[in-house]
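Handout, section 4.2: multi-component inputs.
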Amino acid sequence: MKKGHIPIRTCVACRIKRPAYEMIRLAVLEKVLVKTNQINIGGRGCYICPSKICAEKALKKRLLQKALRSEIEILPSVQSILDRSRQKGVCG
Ligand SMILES: [Zn+2]
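Output:
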């Protein structure tokens, strides 16, 4: 990897591209949505902006299910991560 290279990811809700480190990475493990920053957790992952608007849109329109191509259970803990994400400084 080149020094200074920043991976860019697209938000599943608003489709805006941002540096990966600004995003929340979500993956599905055993049909449960988890938040992870580990790329190698296995399975499919997707990214979402740390914004309440995107979180609500993703949850309401089932965009996470579409992006991850699976029926997933969204645990209250993940929902609260998304909820909390409207506050700035949520990282990792
Ligand atoms: Zn977004």
